[in-house]
Amino acid sequence: MSLKLNTNFILGFLLGYAFYLSFCNGHGTCAMKNNQFSTSHTKIHLHHWLLHVIVWMIVTEKSDFFQGLLMSGIMHGLMYKNWYHIVKKA
Predict the structure, then answer these.
(1) Contact at 8 Å (CB) between 14 and 72?
(2) Contact 1/67 with Cβ under 8 angstroms?
(3) pTM for this model (two decimals)
(4) Are 60 and 67 within 8 A, CB to CB?
(5) Using CB atoms within 10 A of its CB, is residue 19 exposed (0-12), middle (13-18) or buried (19+)?
(6) How confident is the model at residue 31 (pLDDT cuts 50, 70, 90)?
């Protein structure tokens, strides 16, 4: 993807952002909890922004639309005040 934003990237970004707004209200609550794991001593929260970064690094061929989806997840996730809390004591 060049620096020039195209329609597919913008469409992917808007659809992805709308998806996250519908499930995660940005006030610390999110309907999706399948990215959180607990052990007897720790709680691991793989935030959706982190999962999107991992996918971005692994998938080498990404369409502009898919890049827009990934970027929306990263930007939305980084707006949470606890975005950096990944491992906590249980």
Answers:
(1) yes
(2) yes
(3) 0.76
(4) no
(5) middle
(6) low
